[in-house]
What does this fold into?
Amino acid sequence: MRRNKPMRRNKRWATMLALVASLTVIAAACSSDDSTSGEPTESVAPAENSDPAMTEETITDIVAGNEDFSTLLAAVQAADLGDTLAGEGPYTVFAPTNEAFAALPDGTVETLLKPKNQEQLAAILTYHVVPGEILAADVTSGEVTTVNGESIMVEATDGGVTITDGQGNEATVTSTDIVASNGVIHVIDGALVPAS
It folds into this structure.
């Protein structure tokens, strides 16, 4: 994937959107309302450096260290994916914030966090993860296969990056390039839901 110049300008906005989109995916399973304010979220900032060798924090460490990702962290822990996202990687994670999870229909998150729904939750969360490290500068339009084996559609334009999930729901990247030692996080404004 290749980076567009508009993507650089919207780097921070795109990262936030990626996190929100991941959460919106979970919400999209119950609803297709992915509206966003179009404004970047100030509470989740991209990493100061873009060199993975310069940080020792893993994706899991970054999520755990930011209160805006506390719902995502709870979901990662409930799905038993913490060790995976702390592993060698590299991974690209489209991560939704607490705000994205809060936009889901009432009870959705609580239901998915129950032990009996661990497999479904893991499938949704791994649908937010792409193998390899894809920085915003490398994003191009096209179909991308996620870690769970299903594809998302990425559309990179001058206006930013939009991801369409298997249900036809769209999420926008709001902040980009939160670099970890084992990959990168992009924030999205919705949760992604696989087709199956």
Remarks:
- Residues 104 and 160 are 23 Å apart (CA to CA).
- The first helix runs from residue 5 to 9.
